[in-house]
Amino acid sequence: MNKSKKCSISIGPIHPALKEPIQIEVLVEGERVKDASFSLGHVHRGIEWMGLRRNPIQIIYLAERVCGICNISHPLAFCIAVENAANIRVPERAEYLRTIYAELERIHSHLLFLGVAAHELGFDSILHYIWLIREKVLDVIEYLTGNRITKAVLMIGGVRRDISKKQIPKIKEMLAYYKKAYEKLCEILLDDPTIKLRTRDIGVLSKEEALKLCAVGPTARASGVKKDTRQDFPYAAYADLDVEAITPDVLLGEIRGDVFDRIIVRLLEIKQSLELIEKCIKELPEGPTLYEPVLQKLLVDLKKVDNEGIALVEAPRGELIHYLRMQNSETLFAWKIRAPTYANMHTIVPMLKDSELADVPIIVASIDPCLSCANRAVLADKEAIIAQEKIHELCVKKTLKIKERLKRWEHV
Question: For the chain, which has fewer Cβ within 10 Å, the N-terminal or C-terminal residue?
Answer without folding.
Answer: N
